[in-house]
Amino acid sequence: MNRRELSLERQLILMASVEIDENEREQLEKILASPLDWSEVVYQMITHRTLNMLTYNLKKFGLFEQLEGELKRVLNLQWAAYRERNGFYAAKLTEILHAFAEKELVLTVLKGNLLVNTVYPSLETRTFNDLDFLMQLEDVNRVTDVLEGLGYVQGEYAADRHEIHVSSRKAKMVHQMTTHEIQEFIQLCDNPFASVVEVDVNHDILWRGNCPYKVPTRELISRAVPINLYGAKGYRLDHADNLIQLCCHLYKEAVLMVWISSLKDLKLYKFADLYMYIR
């Protein structure tokens, strides 16, 4: 379906989920000049984690002030909340990267934590819920020691009680052997916008159970490229490798029933990641 066959609301949602270029400015202005159901736009863009990209695009082209006052207030509050939240995560990422560097560990930063620093226009425009890394499985003990030394605990977060259910040694081993990652690391925090920080450490970019292929992690790490993140030395995957990882992540969550049933299978931000990264 051509984008312009969609409703104006959905045209705006798709257009504004990535950074809009000057050549689309006229179309953006035309849509904004039309009657819009803003409740649909805001709801969908919150659901697809792209609302702050809308705010960015409107301010980029000087169109934000045209909005109704209460709508502007909501968008500004959302922007400010994620500036605080993402800034807090950035500080945690920096702390972890410094600790990895001290131990001469090479882990690559993945997904949103990388993209917000490399392809998105500002810290607020890409939302994320955890810190993602890729490591060689042979480094698991050293990585675990570093993260535990920083106060992270392997387990599951119980949001209703704001506590961590610590995983047993058996549970950690089963998780490591049957999935693409080790048991997640969690740290409780008192930040009002980030009550918990979760660290996901992958040892494979492909997911067991729905992908018959194998990309050796050792090869991916050998091609890793140094990158500066908030003044700390980190690493990213080679561009082609990173593109494969992003595609694999999107595919996994698009075909597994647990993601489909929770309506998390086709989030626009994942497609926006690919578009922004390729561009």
State the gist of this model.
This protein has twelve helices and eight strands. With 279 residues, it is of the alpha+beta class. The mean pLDDT is 93.
Plain-language structure description:
The chain is an alpha+beta fold and 279 residues long. It has helices spanning 8-15, 25-32, 38-47, 51-60, 69-102, 111-118, 140-149, 169-178, 217-222, 239-255, 257-261, 268-278; strands spanning 108-109, 131-134, 153-158, 163-166, 185-191, 194-202, 225-229, 232-236. The chain has a six-stranded mixed sheet with strand order 1-2-6-5-3-4. It has a two-stranded antiparallel sheet with strand order 7-8. Helix 10 packs antiparallel against helix 12 (268-278). It starts with 7 loop residues before the first helix and ends with a helix.
List the helices and strands and how they pair.
Layout: H1 8-15, H2 25-32, H3 38-47, H4 51-60, H5 69-102, E1 108-109, H6 111-118, E2 131-134, H7 140-149, E3 153-158, E4 163-166, H8 169-178, E5 185-191, E6 194-202, H9 217-222, E7 225-229, E8 232-236, H10 239-255, H11 257-261, H12 268-278
Helix pairs in contact: 1-3, 10-12
